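Protocol step 4 of 6: structure prediction from sequence.
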Amino acid sequence: MPHISSICCLGAGYVGGPTCCIIAQQCPGITVTVVDKSVQRIAAWNSDNLPIYEPGLQEVVDQCRGVNLYFSTDIQEAIRGADLIFICVNTPTKTFGLGKGKAADLKYVELAARMIADTVDEGAGKKIVVEKSTVPVRAAESIAHILSHNSKPGVSYQVLSNPEFLAEGTAIADLLSPDRVLIGGEQSDEGKKAIEALKEVYQHWVPEERIMTMNTWSSELSKLAANAFLAQRISSINTMSALCEATGADVSEVAEAIGRDTRIGPKFLQASVGFGGSCFQKDILNLVYISECLNLPEVAEYWAQVIKYNNFQRTRFSQRIVECLFNTITDKKICILGFAFKKNTGDTRESAAIYISNHLLEEGANLSIYDPKVTHQQILAELELVSTAENLESIPGSVSCCPDPYSAAEGAHAVVICTEWDQFLGLDYSRIYKSMSKPAFLFDGRKILDHEELIRIGFHVETIGKRMIRKNVERKWN
């Protein structure tokens, strides 16, 4: 395998963009070209208004763009000139046909593989193709079949699996100092050479002991398993939050107690309105589908429960809002603070705020929404996707997006914290309280605020996993 001097990345989204920016920064001798069919997206990457928000990303782009980092819509030229090609295209959950609602739709992965085979010139020699998109087990094998059956004379391919483990909001830090880098490939001589070639790229900044090499299928399954385990922890602590609200326990105290057990550890034990983002639900559904296809229904059912409880947590929280507001929110203004699925990102995919907002709209509420990184158009688009046909037309008239938290809360019956943005910690809640309808309710879906102080101001406070006023519980003994 040749020394890697040129890399092409197919897909300029949340994975391909930041990953290749860091490769360009850390490997100044490698030319990195990120390509995409979207003219608008590439134009954004070439501007000062990047298409995605990640702390530290703009600085990396400013440093490398035009030096050894390029963004282009000329996909064929980038493929022809590359020694290594990353496939970083979207793999959404299928919405039709076999596996609907569970299986990953690999249409774009297959199209990328066929484009590579069609574009690489005869006699181009050895090429390394790396799947970085989240894919089901044995997807690399499918890519290899497509390439081998469509390859031209004098061209050979090695297909590697190199899954990403980025957390949105900390992607740049994750890329610069990863817990591990997985590289999976064929265990043949040529496969091992390809693995070493990609490993050499990462060794520019990643210690060798953090780079793990393995067979392709282990690498692919490790990605799904990692996200499934993380999501499972969130759903597990959220089940405890429901018990805490019913009994008078405090889920934060319970989480601290179990997190001090070194076998468990404290990470991902923050109870909330539920997990979101592009990966957790999609990867677990993919795992469920794979298990069903392999005739492992018990395995499939186990992981399906993680998703089922996450949906229940969202519904439970939104129902609690309605119940506290005297069981009716028709024509009441409710302020939603935060629409991204987590802080430090503009990504709204599978955000809990979407489903909570939709439930409140179905109950007749008027919503005023503020998020520092999510646009009005994006909010409306997400709500329209989940809305029922009868409610679709009413969304523009029932949803307003505000330029700041104070205007969003003015005249509202309730404030709902859906994203844990740091700026929400420093708001003047006395000012917000004075501007609201009374009684003024505050629902902290992320457990980030000083609830005692809010009560002192005058708010009726509700949060996850804790009752501010303990209610009597009827116990029945067998």
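Step 5 (inspection) to follow. The chain has a mean pLDDT of 94.
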